[in-house]
Amino acid sequence: MNHEVEDAPRPGSGVSGAHTDHARYGDDDAAAVAAGPAAPTPLGVERTPTGHEGVDALLERLGDADHLPADGHIEVYEDVHRGLREALTALDARPGPPAPPSSYDNRS
Q1: Model-wide pTM > 0.70
Q2: What does the alpha-carbon distance between residue 13 and residue 32 come to, in Å, rounded to a whole number?
Q3: Cβ distance 73 to 79 under 8 Å?
Q4: Residue 34: which of 43, 21, 49, 45 has the closest Cα?
Q5: d(Cα 44, Cα 50) in Å, to the nearest integer?
């Protein structure tokens, strides 16, 4: 029984397998495969301002990923995530109004 893939090159044959792209994908698709990956294109995701200057700046930073290849997105996402966590932590650190008195403290 022969379990080899029909279009796969044989080791040591010197054949890359690229000649089979036309048969596998058609002429137009084979040209796209041969040209390599497409350039980054913006996703067109609309970012709505929140009214919080720091958070809005971080949301705008997400737009930087539109111009990077996919392997560059993680740096942008981690940077934005870190900034959003810091913004949330800062909200927790602010002193708020005093807590209302507990009704359980009144013993008569």
Answers
A1: no
A2: 25
A3: no
A4: 21
A5: 18
Q: What token pair was written down for 20?
A: 């089979």
CB atoms within 10 A of CB 80: 19
Residue 44, sorted as left (phi over 0), alpha (psi -120 to 50) or beta, turns out to be left
What are φ and ψ of residue 5, in 5° steps? Answer: -75, 135
Tokens representing 105 are 């403290």
> What digits encode the pLDDT tens for the residues 12-58?
545 554 455 455 556 666 666 666 677 777 777 788 899 999 999 99
Q: Are 77 and 65 in contact (CB under 8 A)?
A: yes
Question: How far is the C-alpha of 28 from the C-alpha of 54, rounded, in Å?
Answer: 46
Residue 58 CA to residue 79 CA, distance in Å, equals: 8
Polymer length in residues for the chain: 108
E strands in 1-108: none
In one-letter notation, the amino acid at residue 23 is A
Question: What is the Cβ-side half-sphere exposure of residue 22, based on CA atoms within 13 angstroms?
Answer: 2
The pair phi, psi for residue 6, each rounded to 5°, is -60, -45
